[in-house]
Design goal:
alpha+beta; elongated; Jelly Rolls; single chain; 19 helices; 4-stranded antiparallel beta sheet; Helix Hairpins; cNMP-bd_CS; 3 domains; 449 residues
Length: 449
């Protein structure tokens, strides 16, 4: 069975999209101008029939999805396909031009065979509506910007509808003998009518009821399409960069609050710098709020991906079991400190252990003037206060913008109880740290000290 997420299935769907689009363009043109398939058109038509036939076979082996449930039973897949799109897909796979060539030897009148062939060939256009499911799948699974993708799909359908309307107009008014010029004039009339421009240089015959009715129907269609198109374009443009719009809205709220509460200018500058750093480093998103609705297993996979860099940097995580990593990584909480911010001060009760993902943290002396050690990416600190249940013995200050992760006391204690090997690593680091000279490192681990 072929699963929907198979990369070859995605490539085949893209190929079918191209083939069906070609059929949806070429079939109406042949019906309008009445030309016979010769040369490359005959080859292309025969190739399309072969492609559609292969696709019919593949549909019997393609896993279907219903409300998130995968239908993998082959008999059930076949039954569902036979009841839905099998008949139009099979008719679309018939080699109409070969049938037309065999009409003579079979005794079927050529004119009748040609008319039947043209009529049945329209079934291939129905595959375009079957293609709507593929476009929805592409829209759900694509990594492109959702707004741009929606705009592209909308443009695709509008251009296709304009082509059909133009061919319909040609079928009504007839041809002058120049197919290219006739089609361009029909397309020009279609676009001016749908766009509600209506220059009036190409108009229906006032004595021809069919042309009048068709024109009025296209006008009504054009009003709806034009309004729908303008509304969607406006919405898409507004949502092209949702993150930036959200950031700007947040900054307006923060600015209004600081003015209302008379926050000192220096503190206002630090607050703005903090939000600007969040925008530059993570596009203003709060990672936890984005994934909070995910189930625990999926959330763990996402968090592991997001925190893989810090897991690889911290020495005490190396060689740990997958179970330990999955449980611990979900409990890590990100926090950002701006230059000069104190992560904690000497004498405070220790409630968190910190891991440095980006930036530098300074461990200060007792008087908070001199720097005892500088911690960088992959270093951790603050565990001794949690391990020995004692106040902080030194202050930690951000030397620059710092992305840190922390474990709170309850999580730290629970992890130590459940994973003795992790406790041994932490205790070993703590004993090594406590055995160093007092001016080497205070509550921190730095490989360069």
């Amino acid at each position: 069975m072929i699963y929907p997420d198979n990369r070859w299935k995605h490539a085949w769907d893209g190929f079918i999209l191209f083939a069906v689009t070609f059929a949806a363009i070429e079939v109406p043109l042949r019906l309008v101008f009445g030309y016979t398939a010769k040369g490359w058109i005959f080859v292309a038509d025969s190739l399309l029939a072969a492609i559609f036939l292969v696709d019919v076979v593949l549909q019997f082996y393609t896993v279907q999805s219903e409300q998130g449930r995968l239908i993998v039973d082959r008999s059930e897949v076949r039954r569902r396909y036979m009841k839905s799109w099998f008949v139009p897909d099979f008719l679309a796979a018939l080699p109409f031009d070969l049938i037309f060539l065999l009409a003579g030897p079979l005794g079927l009148p050529a004119l009748l065979a040609q008319r039947i062939s043209r009529l049945v060939r329209m079934v291939r256009v129905l595959r375009l509506f079957h293609l709507a499911g593929i476009l929805r799948t592409i829209q759900r699974q694509s990594t492109l910007h959702p707004g741009l993708l929606r705009m592209s799909i909308l443009a695709y359908w509008i251009l296709m509808a304009a082509h059909w309307v133009s061919c319909g107009w040609l079928a009504i008014v007839g041809s002058t003998g120049d197919p290219l010029l006739d089609y361009l004039n029909a397309l020009y009339w279609c676009l001016t009518t749908i766009a509600t421009v209506g220059y009036g240089d190409i108009t229906p015959d006032r004595t021809n009821a069919v042309q009048l009715i068709y024109t009025m129907a296209v006008m009504v269609l054009g009003v709806g399409v034009y309004g729908y198109l303008i509304g969607n374009i406006a919405t898409m443009i507004a949502n092209l960069d949702v993150a930036r719009a959200h950031h700007q809205e947040k900054m307006e709220q923060v600015t209004a609050f600081m003015r209302y509460r008379n926050i000192p200018p220096r503190l206002q500058s630090r607050i703005r710098n903090y939000y600007n750093y969040l925008w530059e480093s993570r596009r203003g998103y709060d990672e936890l709020s984005v994934i909070t609705d995910l189930p625990d297993s999926l959330k763990a996979d996402v968090v592991i991906h997001l925190n893989m860099e810090i897991l690889e940097k911290v020495p005490i995580f190396r060689g740990s079991s997958n179970e330990f990593i999955r449980e611990l990584v979900v409990e890590l909480r990100p926090v950002v400190y701006t230059p000069g911010d104190y992560v904690f001060r000497r004498g405070e009760l220790g409630e968190r252990m910190y891991f440095v993902s980006k930036g530098r943290v300074e461990i200060l002396t007792v008087d908070d003037i001199e720097i005892k050690a500088t911690l960088g990416e992959g270093d951790f600190f603050g565990e001794m206060a949690l391990l020995f249940h004692q106040p902080r013995t030194a202050s930690a200050r951000a030397a620059e913008y710092c992305d840190l992760y922390y474990l709170d006391r309850s999580t730290f204690d629970r992890v130590l109880r459940r994973y003795p090997e992790f406790k041994k690593k932490v205790v070993a680091f703590a004993e090594e740290r406590s055995s160093r000279p007092h001016d080497a490192v205070a509550e921190g681990h730095a490989s360069d000290v």
